[in-house]
Amino acid sequence: MSAPVLRVRELVKEYGEGDARVRALRGVDLDVDQGDYVAVMGASGSGKSTLMNILGCLDVPTSGSYQIDGADVGLLDEHQLALLRNRRVGFVFQSFNLIPRMSALANVELPLVYGGVGQAERRSRALAALEQVGLSDRLHHEPNQLSGGQQQRVAVARALVTAPALLLADEPTGNLDTASTRDVLDILDRLSAAGRTIVVITHEDDVAAHAKRVIRLVDGAIVEDRRQAPVDGPPPRLAEAAR
Amino acid sequence: MNRLEILRFALRGLLANKMRSALTTLGILIGVAAVILLVAVGEGSSQSIQKNIQRLGANTLTISPSFTGGGGGRGGPAGGGQNTGPRTQARQLTLADAEALADKAAAPSVASVSPVVTAGSATATYEAASHGIGQLVGTYPSYFEAMNRQVARGTYFFNDDVLAARKVMVLGTTVAEELFGDLDPVGRQVSVSGVPFTVVGVLKESGSTGMQDADDVALAPLPAVQQSLTGFGSLGSIVVRATGASATATAQAEVTAILNQRHGVTGTAAADYRILNQATLQETVSAATGTFTVLLGAVAAISLLVGGIGITNIMLVTVTERTREIGIRKAIGAPRGAILGQFLMEATLLSLVGGLSGVLVAFAGTRFTIAGIEPVLVPSSVVLALGVSVGIGLFFGSYPANRAAKLRPIQALRHE
Fold first, then answer.
1. Which chain B residues have a beta carbon less than 8 Å from that of A110?
2. Which comes out higher in pLDDT, residue A243 or B290?
3. A100: which chain B residues are within 8 Å (Cβ-Cβ)?
4. What would the pLDDT profile of A119-148 be if each residue is shown by its tens digit?
5. Is residue B278 domain-resident?
6. Cβ <8 Å between B334 and A114
7. What does residue B214 show for φ and ψ, rounded to 5 degrees?
8. What sequence ranges are listed for the domain ABC transporter (chain A) (predicted)?
């Protein structure tokens, strides 16, 4: 077994000062192996979004260590952090966060632009990523011309295009109707089956049912860690369908 | 991430808000155009003044009597005597002074000396027409060259005319037109205060030099004017032409030495004459117009500064407005340099486009006459204004750009 993609030790995050101090995370330990599909569940205020932001290198923990692919994030300078976000992590947000007035194709190409990939390769990789999420016919639409589900699929394509070691999704279906939710979850299932490491944050059981492993957070600490399917197998829903 | 990509992002950012970008550009445009145009106007006016002074004759010294220190006034006893000694009263300039100045041994830098008498309000008549000549000058032929006056029709008068005290006259164009209209004055007789003079030539037009009409003159041989109009008294002035532009200072020193000796001016005593040096006059005037140009440029520079603050303002608004977008870009791995580059590039583009169009407007503007002055484009002002405008873009854009680049991704993403 190779080293875990994610290794988190004693992670603490506090907000505010003095009496107003809030402990969002109270010492979280977590290992995520290559190819795993983890759902992090919890009520609002349980610290799951804080955990996600730290895992995505968008925020820094108050204390504790965090390694991605063996690299200790706490030791990296700003430029290396930017590189890490660009190459190793793909991020899907609840509110899509596409850049307005840029076509779907341009949005997907953007991480490759910052990664210094040449124009021709950029184009072909972005086209392939959009093909993967089934949006080959919406390349030149701008975000405001796309439905919520389509926007989220563009966002997934953008997260995938750099072939990151880890795909993080923060309530990816929170703003979507049931049909679009199914589309997005299908895509995540297929990515998992293809061996991609995925961490999803959600408070819906339906979404968690797709994951191989479910972690429940309450008040900033892990209270349950349940495995639904083996790490190196297909995700549970695909396994059912195959049966 | 190369420069071309940054440029593309910057262009896209600017085009997303066309009106705002256009107005910001306009601020810089006005600033740059104002700097270049006003400096050009200042330069144009300074050059036209210089030209007017030059037209009065280069390399010349005009010596006129000065009575501040002595008891004699104009029309007081004419000091014809050569005796030196303690000075008791101011002496007038005399023909003998002029002759002394023409001495090549004592004054090698002096090319020519022209004694001048001027008759004030002399009225010239021809048939029914009459005209009060602004300045009737009795002098030597060398005066023409010293004062840079040329004859357009007819001839000058010559040394023979001076020796014989012939009553001949060269008219300025204003006088010629007033008396003769369309007729050719050459060869006709005018009567000046009842004395007949034959017109031998008409001067080339030299235009007005501000206060007085330089063409409202008539020139005649010195003795002829003295005989008939002013009497053989003192001289009004002596015009000395130096051998070259560089020799005017030495010529002035020689003239001073000779006149001091002749007029008995010693030590600290105030001289009873004044020397007007065209070169120093020119320097004084160009210093004055230089100040004028600097003043105009300073006013324009303020408007350029205001335009620069406009850029800062717009960039701050842009950064605030696009904080979320900055967060997204950082979340997908935009390095700090790329964000900084994009916003700096936007600011620079605004000021560069504004600056270049300002230069174009200024180029177009200098083709017109502004307030009676033909502007003269000063290349260094173009370079300076353009350089400053781009510098302003970089300088004033760097604060908002830095603020954008320093944001933590999560802060930027949470910004609504």
1. 329, 332
2. B290
3. 325
4. 889 899 999 989 888 888 888 888 888 888
5. no
6. yes
7. -70, -10
8. 6-241
Residue type for A24, please? A
CB contact under 8 A, B329 and A113: no
Tell me whether residue B408 is exposed, middle or buried, using C-beta atoms within 10 angstroms of its C-beta: 0 to 12, 13 to 18, 19 or more.
Answer: middle
pLDDT value for B295: 85
Q: How far is CA B264 from CA A233, B84, B235, B275, in A?
A: 123, 5, 18, 16
Lowest mean pLDDT, pick from A30-44, A78-92, A177-191, B6-20: B6-20
Residue numbers of the domain that contains B207:
67-271
Q: Which of B238, B271, B304 is the last residue of a domain?
A: B271
Nearest CA in chain A to B328: A97
- Looking at the structure of chain B, the number of domains it has is 2
Query: Does residue A158 belong to the interface with chain B, where contact is any CB pair within 8 Å?
Result: yes
Q: Does residue B60 sit in helix, strand or coil?
A: strand
A102/B333 Cβ within 8 A? no
How many Cβ pairs closer than 8 A exist between chain A and B? Answer: 73
Last residue of one domain, picked from the residues B208, B239, B271: B271
Minimal Cβ distance to A58: which of B12, B325, B410 = B410
Test mutation, B11, B14, B326, B332, chain A, max A CBs within 10 A: B332
pLDDT in tens, B292-334: 878 888 888 888 888 788 888 888 888 888 888 888 888 888 8
Nearest to A97 among B1, B5, B328 (CB): B328
CATH of the domain at A57: 3.40.50.300
Task: Give every CB contact of residue B211 below 8 A, 6+ residues apart in sequence.
Answer: none
The reply to whether residue A111 touches residue B12, judged by beta carbons under 8 angstroms, is no
- Residue B211, pLDDT score: 56
